[in-house]
């Protein structure tokens, strides 16, 4: 098979070949498919071009080592976006820890959290500029779950897999993030 024909492989086949051969050319094909999307996701977290480029590079270095863990239980892009979001969250948390600011969401808080359920319609009606300002004020965990759900169309099952938590905890975390977003939005 020629190198050009490898560019037309679906993601799963391409990943399988990369894992088998460790071929850097094939990894370059994967890079070309996803570099811009990953850069944009990184930029949405840090809003700094240089840092987003560095993060994108670091993600691809780690991805090359972690590709063998992909098991095709979901679409490759879903698995990859989960990988990217986790990387971004960890990156932001490390930055915050360097500044002696810490935050975390414990499962206890999630289990005991109650709030009115937010209809997705409310989120879709928000004005873009004000929505971007509101997203910038959200903590990184809330922002990431909202971006996975509404930007990348993750299902609840995909979110459960990405976050490594159960369905009820995922729904509570998503609803909490929507409530916080709406509260920030209303205050602007």
Quick overview:
The protein has 188 residues and is mainly α.
Verbal overview:
- The chain is mainly alpha-helical.
- It has 2 domains: 3-72, no CATH class; 107-187, Winged helix-like DNA-binding domain superfamily/Winged helix DNA-binding domain (Arc Repressor Mutant, subunit A), CATH 1.10.10.10.
- The chain is built from 11 helices and no strands.
- The chain has helices at 3-6, 11-21, 24-46, 49-66, 76-98, 107-112, 120-124, 128-137, 140-151, 156-163, 167-187.
- α5 packs across α10, α9 packs across α11 (167-187) and α10 (156-163) packs across α11 (167-187).
- The longest helix is centred in the first third of the chain and has 23 residues, at 24-46.
- The chain is globular and about 55 Å long.
- 25% of the residues are buried.
Secondary structure topology:
Layout: H1 3-6, H2 11-21, H3 24-46, H4 49-66, H5 76-98, H6 107-112, H7 120-124, H8 128-137, H9 140-151, H10 156-163, H11 167-187
If you compute it from the alpha carbons, what radius of gyration comes out, rounded to the nearest whole angstrom? Answer: 18 Å
- What would CATH call the class of the largest domain? Mainly Alpha
Using DSSP, what is the number of strands? 0
| Shape, principal axes of CA atoms | globular
Helix content: over 70%
**Tally of contiguous helical segments:** 11
**Count of spatially separate domains:** 2
Strand content: under 5%
N-to-C SSE series? HHHHHHHHHHH
Give the distance, in angstroms, between the N- and C-terminal Cα atoms: 57 Å
Secondary-structure content class:
mainly alpha
CATH superfamily membership of the largest domain, which one? Winged helix-like DNA-binding domain superfamily/Winged helix DNA-binding domain
Kindly identify the CATH topology of the largest domain: Arc Repressor Mutant, subunit A
How is the biggest beta sheet arranged? Answer: none
Q: Mean pLDDT, rounded to whole units?
A: 84
Which CATH architecture of the largest domain would you pick?
Answer: Orthogonal Bundle
Low-confidence stretches: 100-114
């Amino acid at each position: 098979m020629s190198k050009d024909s490898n560019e037309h492989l679906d993601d799963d086949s391409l990943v399988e070949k990369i894992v088998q051969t460790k071929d850097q050319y094939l990894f370059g094909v994967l890079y070309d498919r996803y570099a811009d999307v990953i850069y944009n996701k990184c930029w949405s977290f840090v809003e700094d071009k240089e840092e987003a480029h560095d993060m994108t590079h670091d993600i691809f270095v780690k991805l090359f080592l972690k590709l063998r863990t992909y098991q095709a239980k979901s679409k490759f892009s879903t698995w990859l976006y989960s990988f990217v979001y986790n990387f971004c969250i960890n990156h932001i948390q490390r930055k915050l820890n360097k500044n002696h600011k810490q935050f975390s969401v414990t499962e206890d808080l999630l289990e005991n959290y109650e709030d009115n359920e937010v209809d997705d319609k409310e989120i879709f009606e928000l004005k873009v500029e004000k929505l971007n300002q509101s997203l910038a004020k959200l903590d990184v965990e809330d922002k990431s779950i909202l971006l996975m759900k509404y930007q990348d169309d993750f299902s609840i099952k995909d979110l459960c897999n990405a976050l490594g938590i159960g369905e009820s905890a995922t729904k509570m975390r998503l609803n909490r993030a929507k409530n916080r977003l709406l509260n920030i939005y209303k205050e602007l």
